[in-house]
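Need tokens for this chain, all 310 residues.
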Amino acid sequence: MKLDYKVKIENIQQFNIVLKSENVKEIIISRDSFAEKDLIKLTNEIKSKGKSPWILMERISRFEEKPMDLRISTDKLFEIKNLDGIIVQNLDSFAYTLRKINKVANENLKVELNYTMNCYNDETKKVYQNLYNEKRNNASIVPLLFTAPVELNIYELSEVGYDTMIVYSYIDTMVSANCLRKNLAVSDTSCLARNGEFNEPTCKYKFNFENVYDFSSYIIDRKGKKLHYKTYCKYCYNKIFNTEPIYLLDKIDEFKTLGAKFARSLSTYELHEPAYRIDFSFETENEVRDILNKKIPESFTRGHIKNSIK
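Here are the structure tokens for all 310 residues:
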């Protein structure tokens, strides 16, 4: 049976491959990895190919740092007519979205809470749902959506019910505001901060939405395993990822045996199958193709799908 995936991308090489894939129905553009001026262009291109464009909001919002620049930039995000949905990753972005939700260009714009919002049970979901219902005029038509937390096992997930499930992703184990790229630099050419492009102590590209200087590499832990990291200079933070990706694409048929209750809607209690999401971050073009073709990685983890955290 053919499945249509929901895929997150973080660079133009990944975008070009995913855009051509017949198995991808929805494409999520990671906002922290693209210049603001490119978001409209990419969204229109996705729409022209008959796919659904989404934008994943930043992991750490910086409204207090440069409030006018950030607010103007985020306002423009909501003015993109072809945008079908946004995924919120923190409370600041959620609060800002609720203030603007009735003025969006697409009145049916979907709003989804990412797994980083820690919606582990129905009570938590109700809190977010009530806040959303109070602010959005057409909440009954466009309900709030939820991504399944990666910490819950399959039985816990089926009891609560979610709209999206991540079936491939390098999960970030740490988000940090100190610059790993600068701290790990060992020569004058290994870091922008050391070759004169950055003005210390304040980077001149900090919060510049039209210039993206992402950089990825890895560090070695005490067991000799690689921990990939990536700097997101647009919002001035870093992510350190798990040594292995979660891989569950070959387990989707098993999830279906639990029934459609797995994606029970909290607002309507209608039963439906969840969307299956693939997250790409620093993967190469060949790795992207392999995952889309359901090739199992040499090293991977099942996460907590069988055994939840204790």
